[in-house]
Amino acid sequence: MKNTKFTQELRGIFAASAKPLTVADILGILRLKKLRPNKTTIYRQLEKMTRAKDLEHVHFESRGLGYEKAREHHHHLICNSCEKIEDLVIKDEQKMFDRLLGRKEFKAQEHHLEIFGLCMACSR
Ligand SMILES: [Zn+2]
Ligand SMILES: [Zn+2]
Hints:
By secondary structure, the chain is an alpha+beta fold. It has helices at residues 3-16, 23-32, 39-51, 93-101, 120-123; strands at 21-22, 55-60, 64-69, 75-79, 85-88, 114-117. One zinc ion (ZN) binds next to helix 5.
């Protein structure tokens, strides 16, 4: 499969997915479409798209590294029971970090924040 066509395919998959996907998830979706690139090829392409800011990393506790379409800065609420994932937008987040890091001699470049717990349905 040509590289550009592969990129298109991956863009389509991420546009259609409401939740972050791991390399294993993508491998499964591509198999259903009768496409069989190997894991390394997928991983390389995803990293390339992440560097180009098409995608962003998501760090799962249980499933490892995931990817999702880049959009408004947000975090995640992840259910430990059913693995439902909800976006979390923190109001005045920059102010919060300014307060946290105010006295530290450290220049933050990126951060990841995923909160694990139980969704409404699972906590009943
Ligand atoms: Zn943030
Ligand atoms: Zn749940």
